[in-house]
Amino acid sequence: MGKKYMKRCLIVLLVFVFASLPYKTNKETLVKATDEYAELGHQINEILNDQRLNGSVAGISLRSADSGEILYEHFGDVRLRPASNMKLLTAAAALETLGENYRFTTEVLTDGKVNGHNLKGNLYLKGKGDPTLLKEDFDQIANGLKEKGIKKINGNLVGDDTWYDNVRLSQDLIWTDETEYYGAQVSALTLSPNTDYDTGTVIVEVSPASKVGKPAEWKLTPQTNYVNIINNAVTVAKDGKQKITIQRQHGTNTIIVEGTIPVGGGSSKEWMSVWEPTGYVLDVFKQSLKEKGIQYTGKVQMAKTPEKAMLLLEKKSMSLKEILIPFMKLSNNGHAEMLTKEMGRVVYGEGSWDKGLEVINNTIAKLGVNTKTLQLQDGSGMSHLTLIPANELSQLLFDAQNKSWFKSYLTSLPVAGDSERFVGGTLRNRMKVPPAKGNVIAKTGSLTGVSTLSGYVTTKDGERIIFSILNNNFVASGITSIEDQIATAIANYEINK
């Protein structure tokens, strides 16, 4: 160990600061900082003395990326809701358990035989958790069947989603989130409308008609008959208000469009989850078969593929390290939950939240996290019952550096101020100026009353610092700016000025 490290271990300042509290209290709060980072600790304490944090709790942990030593903490051992910072655990566990080159498979099978241009038997589309399937993938599958000479299917078209269990929504998901794209149902056979890969969703776009008073125009991506659009939106004069709402009725696939949109104006667009994504996939696959001139005579249904079914085709996904880019950059909840179930399936033979979370818990324990301090409820952090201390998040980020997959992990994190969507991700519009721009590499998180940011930043001295900031129970707006101030203060910090 170096002298610098030993010095930090021996000299620890215990600073009792009422002014640094994120809420008013009669009890003293322990804030720790090493001697060399005492000034930075003071700066962070001043930032936390922001009235927008009154009545809230802020858990903060700073570690040396070289030694793992805690340089500063503020309620670092207090369990708090991490929001999407939970994805840091899910991604690390997935890389460790599945491997960065892991690929998901979608299979096409039959319990019959191909006779000339006819397939005599049922056609099974078996999903095995691919979160990146698009309409064009089903076009390719249909084209593959055509290339095998199949023009007619004398049997049923069957969707098999039994790779995972049939629990579509995590138990803690808020009822009103179920219709939103970020609360979409989880199925082993699902579909995304575009390369953001928001699984189990459609895009509804509303545009003005050419004349005032006419109903607004709408379109779906992908085109599907699985959802029913009730369009009550009206085109108004050019100087009128654009106020469009797009909502799915709970428990149905009826989407209601309301409001006004000015003639000659721009469109309004929303991603909406569908009810029962397996049926959605089958409807889109039907279209692909039809477009390729392939007919079927039976019904469309959901069932398990017989064990003796013959494999006709299979579609491989992109690698896990590639999936991590939309997953982490855009904070994709569906990916987090599918990866959770996939880990349960691969390790325990059960694609469920319970088994997946068991894998995550066991894996991060091996990575050095004290899992006795955690409460994990889902893979995305949507649950308000998931609780993690900031010190354990910073510990995970420290231990991850020693893994062979760390480069893929780090690359998946949003980069502050980088306008490129799949680089800057959820930080592309934050910290747009140096020294934070391009320097702060971190995962964001947001729920009602929760805002979080955890990742890596390099100081002016060239020392990489691992940080975790968990803000909970606030009611004010603009809390992300407080996180940005802290990250920027770290980036600006010099021990020897």
Describe the structure in your own words.
The protein has 497 residues and is of the alpha+beta class. 27% of the residues lie in helices and 26% in strands. The protein contains twelve helices and 25 strands. The protein has helices spanning 3-10, 38-48, 86-97, 135-147, 277-291, 320-329, 333-348, 353-366, 390-400, 406-411, 421-424, 479-492; strands at residues 12-16, 30-34, 57-64, 70-74, 79-80, 105-110, 113-115, 118-120, 123-127, 152-154, 157-160, 201-207, 217-221, 228-231, 234-236, 243-248, 254-262, 268-273, 295-296, 300-302, 310-316, 388-389, 441-447, 450-458, 464-472. α2 (38-48) packs antiparallel against α12, α3 runs parallel beside α7 (333-348) and α4 (135-147) packs across α5 (277-291). The two termini are 25 Å apart.
